[in-house]
Amino acid sequence: MKKINIAIDGPSGAGKSSISKAVAEELGFIHVDTGAMYRAIGLYALQNDCTAPEKITEKIHEIIIELKFINGMQRVLLCGEDVTDYIRSPEVSMMASNVSAVPAVRAYLLDLQKKIALENNIIMDGRDIGSVVLPNADLKIFLTASPEERASRRYLELNEKPDCPSYEEILKDIRQRDKNDMNREIAPLCQAEDAILIDSSNMGFHEVVEHIQALIQEKLN
Questions:
Q1: 188-197 residue pLDDT tens
Q2: What's the pTM?
Q3: Full DSSP string of the chain
Protein backbone atom coordinates (compact mmCIF):
# COMPACT_ATOMS: atom_id res chain seq x y z
CA MET A 1 0.00 0.00 0.00
CA LYS A 2 1.38 3.39 -1.02
CA LYS A 3 2.53 5.53 1.87
CA ILE A 4 1.39 9.15 2.20
CA ASN A 5 4.24 11.67 2.03
CA ILE A 6 3.86 15.36 2.92
CA ALA A 7 6.80 17.72 2.22
CA ILE A 8 7.25 20.95 4.17
CA ASP A 9 10.15 23.20 3.16
CA GLY A 10 11.25 26.64 4.24
CA PRO A 11 14.08 28.72 5.68
CA SER A 12 15.71 28.43 9.10
CA GLY A 13 13.48 29.43 12.00
CA ALA A 14 10.19 29.30 10.07
CA GLY A 15 8.73 26.84 12.57
CA LYS A 16 8.77 23.88 10.18
CA SER A 17 9.77 21.28 12.75
CA SER A 18 7.41 22.25 15.57
CA ILE A 19 4.48 22.74 13.18
CA SER A 20 5.21 19.53 11.26
CA LYS A 21 5.45 17.64 14.54
CA ALA A 22 2.07 18.96 15.73
CA VAL A 23 0.36 18.15 12.42
CA ALA A 24 1.91 14.66 12.35
CA GLU A 25 0.65 13.94 15.87
CA GLU A 26 -2.89 14.92 14.86
CA LEU A 27 -2.80 12.65 11.80
CA GLY A 28 -0.92 9.76 13.37
CA PHE A 29 1.95 10.19 10.90
CA ILE A 30 5.70 9.99 11.51
CA HIS A 31 7.43 13.39 11.62
CA VAL A 32 10.89 13.46 10.04
CA ASP A 33 12.97 16.55 10.83
CA THR A 34 15.73 16.35 8.22
CA GLY A 35 17.39 19.47 9.62
CA ALA A 36 18.15 17.49 12.78
CA MET A 37 20.16 15.04 10.67
CA TYR A 38 22.33 17.84 9.29
CA ARG A 39 22.63 19.31 12.78
CA ALA A 40 23.88 15.96 14.07
CA ILE A 41 26.57 15.88 11.38
CA GLY A 42 27.37 19.51 12.18
CA LEU A 43 27.79 18.54 15.83
CA TYR A 44 30.10 15.68 14.81
CA ALA A 45 32.18 18.09 12.72
CA LEU A 46 32.57 20.49 15.65
CA GLN A 47 33.40 17.75 18.13
CA ASN A 48 35.94 16.06 15.86
CA ASP A 49 37.65 19.08 14.29
CA CYS A 50 36.54 18.21 10.76
CA THR A 51 34.63 21.34 9.80
CA ALA A 52 36.32 21.81 6.41
CA PRO A 53 34.39 20.22 3.49
CA GLU A 54 37.25 17.90 2.55
CA LYS A 55 37.62 16.71 6.14
CA ILE A 56 33.91 15.98 6.63
CA THR A 57 33.94 14.14 3.28
CA GLU A 58 36.79 11.96 4.55
CA LYS A 59 34.92 11.23 7.79
CA ILE A 60 31.40 10.68 6.40
CA HIS A 61 31.83 6.88 6.30
CA GLU A 62 32.47 6.95 10.07
CA ILE A 63 29.31 8.93 10.88
CA ILE A 64 26.24 6.89 11.74
CA ILE A 65 22.96 8.81 11.89
CA GLU A 66 19.88 6.94 13.11
CA LEU A 67 16.34 8.12 13.75
CA LYS A 68 14.31 6.45 16.48
CA PHE A 69 10.59 7.11 16.75
CA ILE A 70 9.15 6.78 20.24
CA ASN A 71 5.38 7.34 20.33
CA GLY A 72 5.78 9.19 17.04
CA MET A 73 8.50 11.44 18.50
CA GLN A 74 11.81 11.64 16.66
CA ARG A 75 15.06 11.07 18.52
CA VAL A 76 18.38 11.55 16.72
CA LEU A 77 21.27 9.20 17.39
CA LEU A 78 24.82 10.10 16.39
CA CYS A 79 27.13 7.07 16.42
CA GLY A 80 24.80 5.43 18.94
CA GLU A 81 24.43 8.47 21.24
CA ASP A 82 21.12 10.33 21.57
CA VAL A 83 22.05 13.92 20.68
CA THR A 84 18.49 15.27 20.24
CA ASP A 85 18.93 17.75 23.08
CA TYR A 86 22.37 18.97 21.97
CA ILE A 87 21.85 20.06 18.37
CA ARG A 88 19.86 23.30 18.71
CA SER A 89 22.60 25.82 19.54
CA PRO A 90 23.36 28.65 17.06
CA GLU A 91 26.87 27.24 16.58
CA VAL A 92 25.54 23.82 15.58
CA SER A 93 22.87 25.46 13.40
CA MET A 94 25.47 27.37 11.40
CA MET A 95 27.66 24.29 11.05
CA ALA A 96 24.61 22.33 9.86
CA SER A 97 24.20 24.91 7.09
CA ASN A 98 27.86 24.49 6.16
CA VAL A 99 27.88 20.69 6.05
CA SER A 100 24.61 20.62 4.09
CA ALA A 101 26.53 22.04 1.11
CA VAL A 102 28.94 19.07 1.10
CA PRO A 103 27.93 16.58 -1.65
CA ALA A 104 28.95 13.50 0.35
CA VAL A 105 26.78 14.57 3.29
CA ARG A 106 23.73 15.20 1.11
CA ALA A 107 24.12 11.88 -0.73
CA TYR A 108 24.38 9.96 2.55
CA LEU A 109 21.31 11.57 4.10
CA LEU A 110 19.25 11.51 0.90
CA ASP A 111 19.33 7.71 0.84
CA LEU A 112 18.26 7.55 4.48
CA GLN A 113 15.43 10.06 4.00
CA LYS A 114 14.02 8.28 0.94
CA LYS A 115 14.07 4.93 2.75
CA ILE A 116 12.07 6.35 5.68
CA ALA A 117 9.53 7.86 3.26
CA LEU A 118 9.00 4.55 1.47
CA GLU A 119 8.22 2.76 4.73
CA ASN A 120 6.02 5.27 6.59
CA ASN A 121 3.20 7.79 6.32
CA ILE A 122 5.28 10.89 6.99
CA ILE A 123 5.48 14.63 7.23
CA MET A 124 9.07 15.46 6.33
CA ASP A 125 10.45 18.97 6.72
CA GLY A 126 13.65 20.53 5.49
CA ARG A 127 15.07 22.76 2.75
CA ASP A 128 14.77 20.59 -0.36
CA ILE A 129 12.15 17.97 0.46
CA GLY A 130 9.61 18.90 -2.21
CA SER A 131 12.23 19.78 -4.81
CA VAL A 132 14.75 16.93 -4.34
CA VAL A 133 14.03 14.37 -1.63
CA LEU A 134 10.31 13.75 -2.30
CA PRO A 135 9.54 15.27 -5.71
CA ASN A 136 6.39 13.12 -5.92
CA ALA A 137 5.06 13.99 -2.46
CA ASP A 138 1.28 13.98 -2.11
CA LEU A 139 1.37 17.59 -0.88
CA LYS A 140 4.15 20.19 -0.83
CA ILE A 141 4.18 23.26 1.40
CA PHE A 142 6.71 26.09 1.54
CA LEU A 143 6.52 27.65 5.02
CA THR A 144 8.24 30.95 5.61
CA ALA A 145 8.23 34.16 7.68
CA SER A 146 10.22 37.38 7.67
CA PRO A 147 13.81 37.16 9.02
CA GLU A 148 12.86 39.53 11.86
CA GLU A 149 9.92 37.38 12.91
CA ARG A 150 11.99 34.21 12.73
CA ALA A 151 14.74 35.82 14.84
CA SER A 152 12.15 36.94 17.40
CA ARG A 153 10.75 33.43 17.71
CA ARG A 154 14.19 31.88 18.06
CA TYR A 155 15.17 34.43 20.71
CA LEU A 156 12.04 33.64 22.74
CA GLU A 157 12.87 29.95 22.42
CA LEU A 158 16.43 30.40 23.70
CA ASN A 159 16.23 33.36 26.08
CA GLU A 160 15.88 31.26 29.24
CA LYS A 161 19.23 29.62 28.61
CA PRO A 162 22.26 31.22 30.30
CA ASP A 163 24.27 31.42 27.06
CA CYS A 164 21.43 32.80 24.94
CA PRO A 165 22.73 35.02 22.10
CA SER A 166 21.22 38.47 21.58
CA TYR A 167 18.35 39.08 19.16
CA GLU A 168 20.76 40.92 16.86
CA GLU A 169 23.16 37.95 16.80
CA ILE A 170 20.31 35.54 16.04
CA LEU A 171 19.01 37.78 13.24
CA LYS A 172 22.50 37.98 11.74
CA ASP A 173 22.85 34.18 11.88
CA ILE A 174 19.43 33.67 10.25
CA ARG A 175 20.25 36.05 7.40
CA GLN A 176 23.61 34.37 6.87
CA ARG A 177 22.04 30.92 6.90
CA ASP A 178 19.38 32.05 4.41
CA LYS A 179 22.14 33.28 2.12
CA ASN A 180 24.08 30.01 2.48
CA ASP A 181 21.02 27.83 1.91
CA MET A 182 19.73 29.73 -1.12
CA ASN A 183 23.10 30.02 -2.85
CA ARG A 184 24.67 26.59 -2.35
CA GLU A 185 25.36 24.68 -5.56
CA ILE A 186 23.64 21.46 -4.51
CA ALA A 187 19.88 21.45 -3.74
CA PRO A 188 19.54 25.13 -2.79
CA LEU A 189 16.61 26.28 -0.70
CA CYS A 190 13.74 27.07 -3.07
CA GLN A 191 9.99 26.73 -3.35
CA ALA A 192 8.98 23.77 -5.53
CA GLU A 193 6.80 24.83 -8.45
CA ASP A 194 3.82 22.86 -7.14
CA ALA A 195 4.26 23.83 -3.46
CA ILE A 196 1.71 25.93 -1.58
CA LEU A 197 3.26 29.06 -0.03
CA ILE A 198 2.38 29.88 3.59
CA ASP A 199 3.82 33.07 5.10
CA SER A 200 3.35 32.74 8.85
CA SER A 201 4.76 36.18 9.79
CA ASN A 202 1.34 37.29 11.06
CA MET A 203 -0.08 33.90 11.98
CA GLY A 204 -0.15 32.12 15.31
CA PHE A 205 1.21 28.61 15.80
CA HIS A 206 -2.19 26.90 16.06
CA GLU A 207 -3.50 28.88 13.11
CA VAL A 208 -0.71 27.54 10.91
CA VAL A 209 -1.22 23.97 12.18
CA GLU A 210 -4.95 24.10 11.44
CA HIS A 211 -4.35 25.58 7.99
CA ILE A 212 -1.92 22.80 7.06
CA GLN A 213 -4.22 20.12 8.46
CA ALA A 214 -7.04 21.47 6.29
CA LEU A 215 -4.79 21.40 3.20
CA ILE A 216 -3.81 17.79 3.90
CA GLN A 217 -7.39 16.66 4.51
CA GLU A 218 -8.49 18.35 1.28
CA LYS A 219 -5.71 16.58 -0.59
CA LEU A 220 -6.49 13.16 0.87
CA ASN A 221 -10.27 13.30 0.45
A1: 889 999 999 9
A2: 0.85
A3: -PPPEEEEE--TTSSHHHHHHHHHHHHTPEEEEHHHHHHHHHHHHHHTT--SHHHHHHHGGG--EEEEEETTEEEEEETTEE-GGGS-SHHHHHHHHHHTT-HHHHHHHHHHHHHHHHHS-EEEEESSIIIII-TT-SEEEEEE--HHHHHHHHHHHHTTSTTPPPHHHHHHHHHHHHHHHHH-SSS-S---TTPEEEE-TT--HHHHHHHHHHHHHHHH-
